[in-house]
Design brief:
disordered N terminus, two-stranded antiparallel sheet, mainly alpha, about 550 residues
Length: about 550
């Protein structure tokens, strides 16, 4: 528990440099205007489960970073203006029935799962590492804590609980400005608010709060872990790793630092080390954050079977609505990557039954609907997503769906989405986010091709991952430099990661460099794996394959 100052000390405190700025809300100019992106308490209306309220108490632990941070995303912010699309919040009737059915089943098993959590989590931890010592207690900050720690609740991040918690922390810190633990918690809360509210203007506030925590208590692991999370959110994975390692020197059982170390190693392309870090984290702090990261490390190396098994086991021990939404959405994404659309839709329904506003599930459901041939439903779903969270990934997907539909006005609608990607990138960069990967991916197909190549080269200079290799290969291809692109395209698929877009990109580059047989094989593999991997890319792959026969 962070120390509290006495009343006399609070009354005679000197002015705090930067303190008011860290406590203040973001400037109005930086506020996205889309629904649900403000900081007022109330949020999505999700039913409180107690997790977010912890932010309002100085002894609260920070909200742990969602494991989706290990997956390359289109960032964590939003442009100043929402896209001009209908605010359609209604789901298709069939999907509504699916979600309602999952809710009925889930309600019946919730109490039983809670009673079984500790034992199941310990067994899962052993299963993951083939004998990790997972039963008993670890030492955390000098006090014994159960290894089956309280699970992450990513769902609460999008609810009013986080906003109310931030407001409570701000009020507390105005009267107790030397409470370094609460400064660290506030910094972490700002990071999560930026990620979940689509507002990168929160990152400078997070940085000020975390700096204040370290000024008051140099070397405290909570603030160091917060700096790791902030660096990762800004896509500065080298610094994220440095801070995570520093935090673990202070507290080897810090769940956030253990998770951030895995994230950073993954995003730096150091997959073997990430696997080792995941196993270490499992022995020290098994739980949903570690399990999901462990699964993703295996997925990146082509071991889908293990990834699926681990995620299913993690879902079986999840008790909070946030954990259920989070893990179910991860299973949905894994199924979608393998072209298993009905399975993906089932998992997304389970995620949305737990949290109807959970962004990854809403976005994933729309993608699965599009791939299943339900394009209009997918468009409505993505219009809802980008009206709330205008991030590059769903913006590009929606634009491509408009292009594929080709109705009156769809070309203009698509251009609007691509323009908003540029707006998001500008806002993200203004708040310290490295957006080169987002730039490369979006601009290669829907923007300035020269800019795409510059951004891809810059990102490759920082980190060598399968995703950066694929982005650089494709940026080189669209700029007519296929011979140079080929080694990167082959490297992107070298780990065995089953990604249809990577195979499509490689197939097109193989064909362009005269490797017809390899090119056809890659295109066939992409369409067999996930025939609806992209609204436009899948159609282009089919045309190229037919032309190459």
């Amino acid at each position: 528990m962070p120390p509290r100052t006495n009343d006399d000390e609070a009354e005679t405190r000197p002015p705090i440099p930067g303190g008011d700025a860290a406590l203040a809300p973001a400037t109005p100019e930086a506020e996205p205007t889309s629904s649900g992106t403000g900081v007022e308490p109330g949020g999505s209306g999700a039913e409180p489960d107690g997790s977010g309220a912890e932010l309002g108490r100085p002894e609260a632990k920070p909200v742990a970073s969602p494991a989706e941070s290990t997956r390359p995303e289109s960032g964590a912010g939003g442009p100043e203006t929402a896209p001009v699309v209908p605010h359609s919040h209604a789901s298709p009737s069939g999907t509504d029935r699916r979600v309602a059915a999952v809710r009925r089943v889930g309600a019946g098993g919730r109490r039983w799962r809670a009673a079984q959590l500790v034992g199941c989590a310990a067994l899962l931890a052993v299963a993951l590492t083939g004998g990790a010592i997972a039963v008993g207690a670890a030492r955390d900050g000098g006090s014994a804590v159960a290894v089956a720690s309280s699970a992450v609740d990513p769902g609460v991040l999008g609810s009013g609980n986080l906003d109310a918690g931030i407001a409570s922390l701000q009020a507390h810190l105005r009267s107790q400005p030397r409470d370094f633990g609460s400064w660290a918690t506030l910094g972490l809360a700002y990071v999560e608010q930026a990620r979940t509210k689509g507002d990168p203007a929160r990152y400078p506030q997070a940085e000020k709060a975390l700096k204040r925590a370290l000024d008051l208590s140099p070397g405290n692991d909570q603030a160091l872990a917060g700096r790791a999370a902030l660096a990762a959110a800004r896509h500065d994975f080298k610094d994220a790793l440095t801070y995570a390692v520093q935090a673990l020197k202070e507290n080897p059982y810090s769940e956030r630092a253990l998770s951030s170390r895995i994230d950073a190693l993954v995003e730096l392309g150091r997959y073997a080390e990430a696997d080792g870090a995941a196993k270490t984290a499992d022995t020290r702090k098994p739980g949903v954050p570690v399990f999901t990261r462990y699964a993703y490390v295996h997925e990146l190396r082509g071991d889908v079977k293990t990834a699926r098994r681990v995620l299913k086991q993690a879902l079986s021990v999840a008790t909070s609505r946030g954990d259920v939404a989070y893990v179910a959405a991860q299973l949905g994404q894994l199924a979608w990557n393998q072209g298993e659309y009905p399975t993906a839709l089932t998992y997304y329904a389970r995620a949305l039954a737990a949290d109807e506003n959970y962004l990854p599930a809403l976005e994933g459901r729309a993608r699965a609907q599009a791939a299943s041939g339900h394009r209009d439903e997918a468009i409505k779903g993505l219009e809802t997503v980008v009206s709330r969270y205008p991030l590059p990934g769903p913006l590009v997907e929606l634009g491509e769906l408009y292009e594929a539909r080709g109705a009156a006005g769809d070309k203009a609608r698509a251009r609007d989405q691509y323009a908003l990607v540029d707006a998001w990138i500008a806002l993200a960069r203004a708040n310290g986010v490295n957006a080169d990967l987002d730039t490369a991916l979006a601009a290669a197909d829907h923007g300035d091709k020269a800019s795409a190549l510059r951004a891809a080269r810059a990102e490759w200079a920082r980190r060598h991952t399968v995703h950066t290799a694929d982005a650089l290969a494709w940026a080189l291809h669209v700029n007519g430099r296929d011979k140079e692109a080929l080694p990167y395209a082959r490297r992107a698929t070298a780990t065995g990661y089953r990604n249809a877009a990577f195979l499509y990109h490689r197939g097109m580059i193989e064909l362009a460099t005269g490797h017809a047989e390899d090119g056809r094989a890659c295109l066939r593999a992409a369409l067999k794996l996930n025939p609806g991997f992209s609204p436009l890319g899948a159609a282009r792959a089919r045309r190229a394959l037919e032309a190459a026969q």
